[in-house]
Specification:
Layout (H helix, E strand, L loop, with lengths): L3 E2 L2 H11 L6 E2 L6 E9 L2 E9 L7 H19 L4 E6 L3 H11 L5 E4 L8 E4 L2 E7 L7 E7 L15 E7 L8 H8 L40
Parallel strand pairs: 1-2, 4-5, 5-6, 6-8
Antiparallel strand pairs: 3-4, 7-8, 9-10
Length: 224
């Protein structure tokens, strides 16, 4: 796994058990964070830029600044990265409304938090960006296969370069060694993973009762 994002509560469990976060794993801060991965591909070395969205603020003025900072971070990475991915904890409604603004700054946003599930969303007025939602049923991992690298010409629909897939995790699928090692030293903590966004919503009464919460830990090694 190349990188990941954990809620503040999840990160506390990991730090208590291991003393440090796994390499390239982050938790929410007040400002967006970013990193660049270099991956060997059939076309040679490719650079993948990742922007980790900050904690969502309920204050309108802070929200506007967060959006500007995220967009600026994405556009900066666009100058040198072959693919730019945003990882968000904000939920489908907020991510969907942000999607149009983020066009030109991101190729793909991995969206977690409450809302609709398991889809690769595109907007007619923002064809160059896509949003991937997770699943909340059973044991499965959704992912987007990267079929071609964005052309950066401004003419192609970058979302068409992605194909939505899902990998069921049945009993015949062996445990991932990385995740097994990460969770194995935290008995009882696994139930806490993905169960709370309260620290990322800054005191809001959110999510509404009955809504499911998705784990914000999203793998970024799913660009095949």
């Amino acid at each position: 796994m190349d990188a990941g994002y954990m809620s503040s509560r999840e990160a506390r469990h990991v730090l208590a058990a291991h003393g440090e976060m796994p390499k390239n794993f982050l938790s929410p801060q007040k400002a967006p964070q970013h990193l660049v991965l270099e991956k060997e591909t059939a076309q040679g070395i490719r650079r993948i830029g990742i922007v980790f969205f900050p904690e969502f603020s309920p204050k309108a003025l802070v929200q506007k600044k967060q959006e500007r900072d995220i967009i600026n971070a994405g556009k900066k990475l666009m100058e040198s990265a072959d693919l730019v991915i945003g990882i968000s904890l904000w939920g489908e409604a907020r991510d969907s409304s942000f999607l149009f603004l983020a066009a030109g700054a991101f190729d793909l946003i991995l969206s977690s938090g409450p809302g609709g599930i398991f889809e690769l969303k595109r907007l007619p007025d923002a064809p160059g960006i896509a949003l991937l939602r997770p699943v909340d049923w059973g044991m499965a991992v959704p992912y987007a296969d990267l079929l071609k690298w964005p052309a950066r010409s401004g003419q192609e629909d970058a979302a068409l370069a992605f194909q939505l897939n899902i990998e069921p995790l049945g009993d015949d699928v062996p445990d991932d060694p990385f995740m097994a090692a990460l969770l194995g030293q935290m008995p009882g903590a696994a139930a806490d993973f993905g169960q709370s966004l309260e620290e990322t919503t800054a005191g809001e009464d959110f999510p509404p009762p009955g809504d499911d919460i998705f784990s914000p830990a999203q793998p970024v090694n799913n660009c095949r």
